Amino acid sequence: MSIVVRDVREHELDSVLALNNAAGPAILPLDAAKLRSFFDTAEYFRVAERDGTLAGFLVGFGSTAAHDSDNFAWFRARHEHFFYIDRIVVASRRRGGGVGRALYADVQSYAELRYPQLFCEVLLEGGADHALLFHGSFGFREVGQNVMHGGHRAAMLMKDLCSYAWVRDTYGDALPDAPWLLQPRLHAPPAHRPTGTCA
Questions:
Q1: Distance between CA 107 and CA 111 in Å, rounded?
Q2: Per-domain residue ranges for the chain?
Q3: What would the CATH number be for the domain defined by 3-171?
Q4: Taking a C-beta distance cutoff of 8 angstroms, is the pair 120, 132 a contact?
Q5: Residue 171 — φ and ψ, nearest 5°?
Q6: Could you give the CA distance from residue 115 to residue 103 in angstroms, rounded to a whole number?
Q7: Sheet containing 83-90, strands listed edge to edge, beginning at the edge strand earlier in sequence
Q8: CA-CA 20 to 30 A from 21: which of 12, 29, 119, 164?
Q9: What is the pLDDT of residues 26-59, one digit of tens each?
């Protein structure tokens, strides 16, 4: 039973919306217009398939994006150059089966070539221990908390991407021409690559 991670397709947006809004209190609900804006503007919007069915998705933005998330703004007020995971959703019947880990491995392999840090948040209402443990096992650490406009409190998490400095110093803005290095979404804005080091 293999997991395939690939770019989302436009005709799948209704299924992605249903998956998001069935995820429970740990994921904020979306409407069709907001999901469409993600499709049009997100630098990274990929789905995971397991046994040929949609099993999860992940949406992410580079730090220069025109993204209106409270938590994205919190990170941008404190950091210049990063990649932000807006949301990851795994179908309830697929949780614990490696789908989340496959999506995180994929987004990290994308981000670490272009950004020095990876950010996300975990909503703290309704039992967040499993989500915090999941992120901690990937090397994320809490760097603060944010109370969002709706009153939700989020743990703000960061992971240093230590491969970034070597890639930047070796290749600068000209990554090799290899298919696996292509940006996941051809219409996504190019990533900006300033100097910086991994702590």
A1: 6
A2: 3-171
A3: 3.40.630.30
A4: no
A5: -115, -10
A6: 17
A7: 3-7, 44-50, 53-62, 83-90, 117-123, 153-160, 141-147
A8: 119
A9: 788 899 999 999 999 999 999 999 888 999 999 9
